[in-house]
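Model it.
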Amino acid sequence: MPKDAGKVRTEANAAAAQASAAAKTNWHKLVEKLKTGRQPKPLDKSNMEWRTAFTNAEKAGQLKGTTEAQVVKVTEDAAQAMAKNPSKWRYVWKTLKITFGAMLTALIVVGLNAMFS
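Modeled.
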């Protein structure tokens, strides 16, 4: 095993923890938007916050085997589900974290916030 493996793993864990904390903050903002009855717009992939989150997730190796189009599709599906039944937002959050992990969930939440703004 390379000498730097421990350092890389530590950096990846730190990035995931930071992404998780940011996602939780963004998630609470999103819930407030949902409570006002906002409907989602299509995800703008040129949005700077989205691009940055996507690039960071990609650099951290969290998107292996996942394309940008797949992430966009999951984000848009989550937005539609949340718009249809906003009271289920707690379950959507838990499902995203369990299914995709902290980093990808953070990316999806950034997209959701952009769609509901």
